[in-house]
């Protein structure tokens, strides 16, 4: 059974860079796309973009200037960096295996709070 | 971006009730829609993709239908574990977008 686990700091200061890692276990990172999706507290879901195992990326234009994804196939990990964060970036961040027709498997999510 | 809307925004129902949730896309998305269930403090769980194909392990009481711009998720007989928020998501183009959610709670 594929499992995804997000990790990273739970508190980031305004204007700094948010960095998260998603570790995939129980399956290979290869042949799939991996999406990041976030959910502000009490609100809906926002797709941030995906990265393929090849390193190809597709970012949501709403975040494109601030977001960077990377992949480490040797560690079965994908990573997210979001720069110049504000309080509006406070959210639960999920990674998910992206079958392109749907997000098939999700991590448990990690809450990141942007506050000084 | 394709806008997804859902109705109702919330519904109160009893165990055993039939519940139908509607999702509308702002443009034709063929059958490229997925449905998710989310319980408080948990990640969304994929129920249905390609409008009507059930994800492995999803109970048969969940079904999806529709094409073009109008879609429905039906729970044929609501069970206690089904009280949750349900989201639709279009998989037709990028950026992927979600509906605002429909909360199903206990009547």
What does this structure look like?
The complex is a heterodimer of chains A (116) and B (107). Chain A has strands at 3-7, 11-12, 18-25, 33-39, 46-52, 57-59, 67-72, 77-82, 91-98, 103-106, 110-114. Chain A is mainly β. Chain A is built from no helices and 11 strands. The N and C termini of chain A lie far apart (39 Å). In chain A, strands 2, 4, 5, 6, 9, 10 and 11 form a 7-stranded mixed beta sheet that branches. Chain B is mainly beta and 107 residues long. Helices cover 0% and strands 50% of the residues of chain B. In chain B, the strands form 2 sheets. In chain B, strands 2, 4, 5, 6, 9, 10 and 11 form a 7-stranded mixed beta sheet that branches. A 4-stranded antiparallel beta sheet of chain B has the order 1-3-8-7, with no helix packed on it. In chain B, strand 4 (33-38) and strand 5 (45-49) form a beta hairpin. Chain B is globular, with a radius of gyration of 13 Å. Chain B starts with a strand and ends with a strand. The model of chain B has no long low-confidence stretch (mean pLDDT 97). The A-B interface holds A 35, 44-47, 49, 58, 60-62, 94, 99-104, 106-109 and B 32, 34, 36, 42-46, 49-50, 55, 87, 89, 91, 94-101.
């Amino acid at each position: 059974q594929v499992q995804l686990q997000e990790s990273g700091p739970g508190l980031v200061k305004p204007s700094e860079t948010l960095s998260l890692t998603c570790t995939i276990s129980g399956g290979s990172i290869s042949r799939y796309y991996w999406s990041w999706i976030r959910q502000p507290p009490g609100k809906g879901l926002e797709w941030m973009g995906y990265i393929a195992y090849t390193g190809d990326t597709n970012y949501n234009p709403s975040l494109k200037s601030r977001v960077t994804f990377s992949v480490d196939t040797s560690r079965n990990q994908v990573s997210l960096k979001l720069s110049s964060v504000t309080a509006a970036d406070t959210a639960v961040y999920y990674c998910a295996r992206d079958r392109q027709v749907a997000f098939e498997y999700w991590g448990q999510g990690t809450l990141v709070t942007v506050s000084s | 971006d394709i806008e997804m809307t859902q109705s109702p925004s919330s519904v109160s129902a009893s165990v055993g009730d039939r519940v139908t949730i509607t999702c509308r896309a702002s443009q034709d998305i063929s059958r490229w829609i997925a449905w998710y269930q989310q319980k408080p403090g948990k990640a969304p769980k994929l129920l249905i993709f390609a409008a009507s194909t059930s994800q492995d392990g999803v109970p048969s009481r969940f079904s999806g239908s529709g094409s073009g711009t109008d879609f429905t998720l039906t729970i044929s007989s609501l069970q206690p574990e089904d009280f949750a928020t349900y989201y639709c998501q279009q998989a037709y183009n990028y950026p992927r977008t979600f509906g605002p959610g429909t909360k199903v709670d206990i009547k």
